[in-house]
Write a structure and sequence with these properties.
about 50% helix; single chain; four-stranded antiparallel β-sheet; Alpha-Beta Plaits; alpha+beta
């Protein structure tokens, strides 16, 4: 599974929905979209400073560019984001193992 850090700027429509429906509504909606793409929403937070309104950690079984593009379109079509950034995370132990393999070759 691939893990990602999601940095999300909410659209004004989504911010209005969060105020109306409650803060957990956004997390629940994102969790459903991620699950439909065969992934898991690990955790999510709202922020109060900077460029991003919402931060999450997502694990995806299929990390292909096609799945990523489809998921982005689904989030945008649902009105969840005005902009977003996804950073693939590398497990520290996996990086250590890769470094060991590289140095032994």
């Amino acid at each position: 599974m691939a893990s990602y850090l999601g940095l999300i700027k909410m659209s004004s429509e989504e911010a209005k929905r969060v105020v109306r429906d409650g803060p957990t509504s956004r997390r629940d909606q994102l969790a459903r979209l991620v699950q439909e793409a065969d992934g898991t929403l690990r955790d999510a937070w709202y922020t109060n400073v900077g460029d991003w309104d919402f931060i999450c950690i997502v694990e995806m079984a299929d990390a292909s560019p096609v799945t990523g593009a489809a998921a982005t379109l689904a989030r945008r079509a649902a009105g969840l984001t005005s902009s977003e950034r996804w950073i693939e995370l590398a497990d520290i132990d996996d990086v250590a193992e890769a470094l060991e393999q590289m140095s032994s070759n």
